[in-house]
Fold:
Amino acid sequence: MFHTLVAAPPDPILGLTEAFKKDHNPQKVNLGVGVYKDAAGQTPVLTAVKRAEETLLQAEKTKNYLPIEGHSEFDQATQALLLGSDPAGGSAGRAVTAQAPGGTGALRVAADFIASTLAAPRTVWLSDPTWPNHPNVFQAAGLRTASYPYFDKASNGVAFDAMLSTLESLPEGDVVVLHGCCHNPTGVDLDRAEWQAVAELLCRRHLLPLVDFAYQGFADGIREDAAGLKILMQHCPDLLVASSYSKNFGLYNERVGALTLVAESSSGAAAALSHIKRVIRANYSNPPSHGASVVAAVLTDGELRALWEEEVRAMRGRIQKMRQAFVETLQAKGVDRDFSFIARQRGMFSFSGLTAGQVQALREQHAVYVVGSGRISVAGMTEENMDYLCGAIAAVLAG
Ligand code: LMR
Structure:
């Protein structure tokens, strides 16, 4: 039976990490996966997280199951972080949240919920380009995926007119996946007016927005980055949000995320939650506790929360500094192509414009690992690896 199987191709992002680990070049640089590195090249445990963990370790009295929808303080705190705690903002009673194992887990719960609960057939529309795992997740739930234009190579900006005209043509009831901020892989986001126009269109055309929100705090700030989400909430009767604490809490391996659903009415939201619970129960029964307890403890304690916000600000600031240094060092290495757009992109990623051949040469000749699409994780750059990295890119561009 199994001996006839042909191996599946490695994952385009996590497969790179596997290859990177096996590489013996002492100067190797991993700019593949979106994982934050500090100035010393480490992925640290945040101090706010460590403090919360110390307290939790002392206070914990049981390892009993969590409810199917997870830790209730975590769910409430997540909702407030995403949608704001002010009921005048419009979410009061209309929103429900279920804890999920990471942002990917939240997307899969959303996909299963859409596939099993909403009237079929529905196509899930993804930006072109998008995170390579998006099609996998939705297709695994039996949903059809297709793409709408998003990135304009000529301007390194959003192809907004093309995006709107495609969205305008979609059949009612289809699902549109939007990146809440720090678009993965391009680092190019909608501005306020564009969010407004997209929200009005989705509402008018009866399309369901699903926001993948994995980088809150990495563009302009924790509150500022939720601006698009709030605009959608004000316009759209229904909305799904898959959010993650992997990046902004550094809780990558604890798998902490959430699926939040906003409905037109509180009764609609409660009914939807019952279906989300059914999907979770059939999938992993109920979520793990540790990471969500940490997040809840930090978000609900004034001192820990202030410390966390400061730590997010520092991560954001370091990445921005690296963007600037990257552009300047490439110039200093004699690269004449204009890479200044990289300093304007936001979040962990930049869409460098490097071709698949150049990406391959970087890896084979210089042990610099970049995703095949040319996506670079700026979060993996440090002052120490910058010179080597830019030298390698200059050599590949010249070759
Ligand atoms: C990424 O895009 O690098 C991250 O979201 C990590 C992942 O799971 O792919």
